Automatic annotation (TrEMBL):
It is found in: Cell membrane; Cell projection, Lamellipodium; Cytoplasm; Nucleus. Phosphatidylinositol 3,4,5-trisphosphate-dependent guanine nucleotide exchange factor (GEF) which, independently of RAS, transduces signals from tyrosine kinase receptors to RAC. It also mediates signaling of membrane ruffling. Regulates the actin cytoskeleton as an effector or adapter protein in response to agonist stimulated phosphatidylinositol (3,4)-bisphosphate production and cell protrusion. Gene3D superfamilies: Pleckstrin-homology domain (PH domain)/Phosphotyrosine-binding domain (PTB). Keywords: Cell membrane, Cell projection, Coiled coil, Cytoplasm, DNA-binding, Membrane, Nucleus, Phosphoprotein. The gene is Swap70. GO terms for cellular component: cytoplasm; lamellipodium; nucleus; plasma membrane. InterPro entries: EF-hand_SWAP70_N, PH-like_dom_sf, PH_domain, PH_SWAP70. The lineage of its organism: Eukaryota, Metazoa, Chordata, Craniata, Vertebrata. It comes from Rhagologus leucostigma. This is Switch-associated protein 70.
Length: 592
């Protein structure tokens, strides 16, 4: 009943929308009451659908109604409740469709001349309602248009022009989803897809398609039927439908002679020729059996196959082939639409994912730019630090030059002091000129010893200064090692230069040590000579002491142990020697 209600609603929708509409697109209630359109439409529907008409319910339904007829209190709820729900199916579909057609055709049918009659246009309109989509406003999609045009072309016996329809389909798809009923009538009536065919051929083709799709006529034609009482053979016009075979006197269907009701228990069998009749077959039902004679073997086989197919569909509970095919086409379109929507959804997801990726890439790009900016800033700071370090090392080198200059000045001062000291020695030598011959060997030995001692002291001082300088350079190298790897590479050349200087200083230190060792050896030799000279001149000193009194000048007569130096015994006391040592150590510390 749901499918029947949908088919009825499509025809009623055309009749309903043909009435005058108000600004909201609805039939105004005052217009329906004034013109009697509501009452006439309801009465006609009840008449053709064999439903009892209740005018009181109609007036009661619209009482105190301020809304349009398609609102909750409008005409459509009334139609569903009081008319469509009472439809039982025992009505003439052609008469129902013709009533709806009469209400809408005059207003919507094209005024331009068509190659088809009004009756053919009516049949095309009914076929449109059958093939259109189940949504409003009603349209027929290009796939169903192609199906209908193919059926009409096959019925005309012409060839189908697929390329021509493809061009038309492309032009149609670019502008809209499908055609309305009136546009479909204009398309078929224009003869665009029936060129070369006369009006009668087109009309017969439309009628054949109408009979198949709307009247459910699966097959029709003249055959001979054997009577049940008189047993005579009479020509009848047979019409095969999904559950019945009707036979008429002629093909105008005005004088119906009977029906053969089909069900799953029926069967059809071929019979051999007999009694001068050929191409015989038998239809067996529960209560009767019908003998029929076709015009030829081909017609006989076609009828047997068509009847057997109909019985098989009844057994399976399946709808007629054209309705089943229409349902499959709709399901296929719905499936393709769902797949297309799913594909669009996936494309949107991919697009969204792509946009997210683009945003992520943009974020990464900004991060890379920020990282590059930070790296450039760090490189700038590193170069600035490098410049600062170079300036610092330059200052340190200047400071080292100043320290070296001071050391050279101290060495020059020491040399000056040494020169003064030597001058004093020469003066003392003049004072002791008389003892020159006797003490020449001893004095020479003592002078050599003092020279060696001075040389050793100077070498020690230089060695100490070099060691301090080496320790300072070593400390600088340790500090340079703790710097960053990039700074190490920059300072490597400076370190190599200092290492070379260090090697030169080490070589000089080694040379000084060798000279110190040679001085020690000379000192030992001088010491031995001094001892020998002291032994040789001991007796001579005693003699001089008695005569000249030189012992008192050289030895002041202190009770402390006598000290022997380059100037002879008792030249310095231990206190003076300690004071000299402290002075030397203080100068050494200052130089370091």
């Amino acid at each position: 009943m749901v499918g029947l209600k949908e088919e009825l609603l499509k025809s009623i929708w055309h009749a309903f929308t043909a009435l005058d509409l108000d600004r909201s697109g609805k039939v105004s209630k005052s217009q329906l009451k004034a013109s009697g359109g509501r009452r006439v439409l309801s009465h006609n529907l009840c008449t053709v659908l064999n439903v009892p008409h209740d005018p009181v319910a109609l007036e009661e339904h619209f009482r105190d109604d301020d809304e349009g007829p398609v609102s909750n209190q409008g005409y459509m709820p009334y139609l569903n409740k009081f008319i469509l729900e009472k439809v039982q199916g025992n009505f003439d579909k052609v008469e129902f469709n013709r009533m709806c057609w009469t209400l809408c055709a005059k207003k919507n049918l094209s005024k331009s001349p068509l190659l088809i009659s009004d009756e053919d246009a009516f049949k095309v309109w009914v076929i449109f309602n059958f093939l259109s989509e189940d949504k409003y406003p009603l349209i027929i999609v290009p796939e169903e248009i192609e199906y209908l045009l193919k059926k009409i072309t096959e019925a005309m016996g012409a060839g189908w022009q697929q390329e021509q329809f493809d061009h038309y389909k492309i032009a149609l798809n670019t502008s809209r989803e499908g055609l309305s009923a009136w546009e479909l009538i204009d398309l078929i009536g224009s003869g665009q897809f029936s060129k070369g065919m006369d009006r009668q051929t087109v009309s017969m083709a439309i009628n054949e398609v109408f009979n198949e799709l709307i009247l459910d006529v699966l097959k029709q034609g003249y055959m001979l039927k054997k009577g049940h009482k008189r047993k005579n053979w009479m020509e009848r016009w047979f019409v095969l439908k999904p559950n019945i075979i009707s036979y008429y006197v002629s093909e105008d269907l005005k004088d119906k002679k009977g029906d053969i009701v089909l069900d799953g228990n029926c069967c059809v069998e071929a019979l051999p020729d007999k009694d001068g009749k050929k191409c015989l077959f038998l239809i067996k039902c529960l209560d009767k059996t019908f003998e029929i004679s076709a015009s030829d073997k081909k017609k006989k086989q076609e009828w047997i196959q068509a009847i057997q197919t109909t019985v098989n569909l009844l057994r399976a509970g399946s709808p007629p082939p054209h309705k089943e095919a229409r349902q499959k086409r709709k399901e296929l379109r719905q499936k393709l639409l769902a797949e297309q929507e799913e594909l669009e959804r996936q494309m949107k997801e991919l697009q969204a994912a792509n946009e997210n990726k683009q945003k992520e890439l943009e974020t990464v790009r900004k991060q890379l730019e920020a990282a590059a900016a930070r790296a450039a800033e760090e490189e700038k700071k590193r170069l600035q630090t490098q410049v600062e370090l170079q300036d610092r090392f330059s200052l340190e080198l200047e400071r080292e030059k100043m320290v070296r200059q001071k050391m050279e000045e101290q060495v020059a001062q020491k040399s000056s002091e040494l020169e003064q000291y030597l001058q004093r020695v020469r003066e003392l030598e003049e004072m002791y000129k008389q003892l020159q011959e006797a003490l020449e060997d001893e004095k020479q030995a003592r002078q050599d010893e003092e020279t060696v001692r001075k040389l050793q002291a100077r070498l020690l001082e230089e060695e100490t200064a070099k060691r301090a300088e080496l320790e300072k350079w070593h400390l600088q190298q340790q500090q340079a090692i703790q710097m960053t790897e990039a700074e190490k590479q920059e300072l490597e050349n400076q370190r190599m230069m200092k290492e070379q200087a260090l090697q030169v200083a080490m070589q000089q230190l080694k040379q000084l040590e060798l000279e110190r060792k040679e001085a020690l050896e000379q000192y030992e030799e001088v010491k031995k000579k001094l001892e020998t000279a002291a032994n040789n001149t001991k007796s001579w000193k005693d003699k001089v002491a008695h005569h000249e009194g030189l012992i008192r000048l050289i030895e002041p007569g202190s009770k402390n142990p006598h000290l022997i130096t380059n100037w002879g015994p008792a030249a310095f006391t231990e206190a003076e020697l300690e004071e000299r040592q402290r002075s030397w150590k203080g100068k050494k510390a200052t130089s370091e």
